[in-house]
UniProtKB/TrEMBL annotation, chain A:
Its cofactor is Mg(2+). The chain crosses the membrane at residues 88-107. This is ditrans,polycis-polyprenyl diphosphate synthase [(2E,6E)-farnesyldiphosphate specific]. Keywords: Endoplasmic reticulum, Magnesium, Membrane, Transferase, Transmembrane, Transmembrane helix.
From TrEMBL, chain B:
It comes from the Eukaryota. HAMAP family: ISPT. CDD domains: Cis_IPPS. The gene is NDAI0G01550. GO terms for biological process: dolichyl monophosphate biosynthetic process; endoplasmic reticulum to Golgi vesicle-mediated transport; polyprenol biosynthetic process. Belongs to the UPP synthase family. It comes from Naumovozyma dairenensis (strain ATCC 10597 / BCRC 20456 / CBS 421 / NBRC 0211 / NRRL Y-12639). This is Alkyl transferase.
Length: 368, 290
């Protein structure tokens, strides 16, 4: 069991390391960036892009042809080089294909937006847990563990910036509590939520008191598996409980640890990098002969990663226009059900409840 | 299998179809925005068989024909690497009769790909069977090795057949490979990092996955290429039809969609650079809060 200790060591060590603010350098997912981004990514910009692409196609045909003859990869068709005329012809065809697809896409986009607007009207939680409860009671099964990928939108947008992200996350927490789900995983690529955990605590507290009344706020715990920290409720009430209290208070802390919901905050760091770290730790143990490679089983890796990151969620909600897992821990999506709405770009209750609906209807047969 | 023959009723239909396909795939090819690596979860062969009142075995065979048609279109459009999920380690749980049938089918097809090998020859495909092959019986392993040996010098395109495979096993396998290389003193320079784990996957050294297609409307990965798919920017397409019903037309549509979105997101990225200063301001602001 030397491994277990080692991996704890790994956690503590990495908690100290300085996280680079990735928010400044991040590139939006290629699919989404065209259609989402709200006000900042305006229609005029899309038109600009379209025209530039078409013009570029025409203008660069000749230049491309020159460069193509030198680079074998782009213009070659299984050894047979495309002629100047041929390539021009296909380019025109491509532009025509793009234009017709673009027209179709525009119609589809408008249709989807309209549909989402109607759905949002139909499903409206109106800050009441009872309504959510009613919706959930109809379902045959609900996920034990729910995960959601949230994104920080550009600051200029409606619901953008850190405020918007915190608001979205805390609302998700409220819905999850009301639905009776005990575990929620919030994933954001850059780890913004992790860095602003105190703000998140406050926001969740105030949001929950909107739903349940200020005197009735359900207890919650925020877990950051990467730095091995747990926060209970809002920061003002019990500062001393941040980390495990000891001695005579144990009973009291036990009492405090009974929570209605446990929220885990994950980021890109918990995905591939954690697997790399685990491999390194194990390799070091093997090199010093504390562990034989043949002793490492899938179960061992699985239990280690469960300890480091958490358990596999049953349902993963994505609130973007088209599914992009954005580096979500790969080990933990084996049988996870995904749900997202095409062209949706908001964290809304309708997506949440429709995701639960889909999950209730899914049949799981592992390999059979 | 009626679907395949019925199309030839009208004279000249097949030729026209082929012609359209050629033109389409060449047009896409000039866009230079075709996915380099596509993954397929071919789900729904059994349901198709049940729906059409044919045997499960025949369902799988129809599925194979669909696969070859789809792959042909992909390779012509400029996809250089395709990975298909043929058999999961979990599939050993199925009835022994079906497992046997699947194994026989695999043996037959692997031989066919190699011997007659129109497709492997025409597109210069290197066939790789990936997964935990130690679970198979010795005869089949021999066939597989033979197939890989014969096509190993083809270098235009790659076809990965996942046979018995799971995504977790792949990650586990890669971790172990890395550990072994690290401990082995033969390679003192060996470092464990993301790219070394990536290289030691079964798909190591191939272009990164761009597009995943899963049929039959199930929204799960079912343990397929977990490491690769979770990467940022991989497009996931879930299609609500059974695999044997998934025709080249739908595939063409998906390829067009992918190319369209990719071309325009590449262009809009340029405009987005203006926003980066804004983001930076924000990032500095949020750091102060901590």
């Amino acid at each position: 069991m030397g491994i277990k200790e080692e991996s704890c060591y790994l956690q503590r060590q990495s908690s100290d390391e300085e996280c680079i603010p990735i928010a400044a350098t991040r590139v939006p997912p290629p699919q989404g960036s065209v259609l989402k981004g709200g006000e900042v990514n305006s229609k005029s910009r899309i038109i600009k892009a379209v025209t530039e692409s078409v013009l570029w196609d025409q203008r660069n045909t000749e230049i491309d042809n020159v460069s193509r003859s030198s680079s074998a990869t782009s213009g070659e068709f299984w050894g047979k080089k495309m002629g100047k005329f041929e390539s021009f012809f296909y380019r025109i065809l491509l532009v025509m294909l793009y234009i017709s697809y673009g027209l179709f896409r525009y119609g589809q986009y408008q249709y989807n937006r309209m549909r989402l607007r109607i759905l949002n009207l139909i499903y409206n939680p109106a800050n009441t847990p009872q309504l959510i409860r009613q919706d959930v009671m109809k379902l045959q099964k609900i996920p034990k563990r729910l995960a959601a990928i949230v994104e920080m939108k550009p600051v200029g947008d409606l619901g953008g910036g850190l405020k918007g992200l915190l608001n979205d996350s805390s609302e998700l927490v409220c819905w999850t509590v009301s639905a009776g789900i005990k575990h929620l995983v919030l994933y954001d690529f850059d780890g913004v939520l992790k860095k602003n955990v105190n703000e998140l605590r406050n926001e969740i507290h105030s949001q929950l008191s909107k739903y349940y009344g200020p005197s009735n706020v359900p207890r919650y715990a925020i877990k950051i598996p990467h730095s091995n920290k747990i926060y209970f409720n809002d920061p003002n009430t019990d500062k001393e409980n941040e980390n495990n209290a000891s001695g005579g208070d144990q009973e009291k802390t036990q009492e405090k640890k009974k929570v209605s919901i446990e929220i885990s905050l994950l980021s890109n760091r918990d995905g591939r990098e954690t697997i790399v770290d685990l491999t390194k730790t194990m390799a070091d143990l093997c090199a010093s002969n504390d562990l034989a490679i043949s002793d490492i089983s899938m179960q061992l890796i699985d239990s280690e990663l469960t300890q480091l990151v958490g358990q596999e969620p049953d349902l993963l909600l994505y609130f973007g226009p088209s599914l992009d897992l954005q580096g979500f821990p790969p080990w933990h999506i084996r049988l996870t059900e995904f749900y997202w709405e095409t062209d949706n770009n908001e964290v809304t209750y309708s997506v949440f409840i429709r995701g639960l609906n889909q999950y209730a209807g899914c049949k799981m047969n592992v390999g059979k | 299998m009626e679907g395949i023959e019925s199309s030839s009723n009208i004279p000249g239909y097949n030729i026209t179809l082929k012609w359209v396909k050629n033109i389409f795939s060449r047009s896409l090819r000039v866009s230079n925005n075709v996915p380099k690596h596509v993954g397929f979860i071919m789900d729904g062969n059994r349901r198709y068989a049940r729906k059409n009142g044919i045997e499960v075995k025949e369902g799988h065979e129809t599925g194979f024909f669909t696969m070859s048609k789809i792959l042909e279109l992909c390779y012509e459009s400029g996809v250089t690497c395709a990975t298909v999920y043929a058999f999961s380690i979990e599939n050993f749980k199925r009835s022994p009769y079906e497992v046997d049938a699947l194994m026989n089918l695999a043996r037959l097809r692997i031989k066919q790909i190699v011997d007659k090998g129109e497709m492997a020859e025409k597109y210069g495909i290197k066939v790789k069977i990936i997964g935990d092959t130690s679970l198979l019986d010795a005869d089949l392993i021999k066939d597989i090795q033979n197939a890989m040996e014969i096509t190993k010098n083809n270098n235009r395109a790659i076809l990965n057949i996942c046979f018995p495979y799971t995504g977790r096993e792949e990650i586990y396998h890669s971790m172990k490979e890395c550990m072994a290389k690290y401990c082995d003193n033969g390679e003192p320079e060996f470092k464990i990092n993301e790219s070394s784990l990536d290289l030691n996957l079964y798909t190591g050294g191939e272009p990164p996955l761009d597009l995943l297609i899963r049929t039959s409307g199930v929204a799960r990965l079912s343990d397929f290429m977990l490491w690769q798919i979770s990467n940022k920017g991989v497009v996931i397409e879930l299609i609500d039809c059974l695999w044997p019903d998934f025709g080249p037309l739908r595939m063409a549509w998906i390829l067009l969609k992918f190319a369209f979105q990719k071309s325009f997101s590449n262009r809009t990225k340029k405009f987005e650079e203006e926003d980066i200063d804004l983001d930076e301001d924000y990032a500095n602001g949020s750091k102060k809060d901590i």
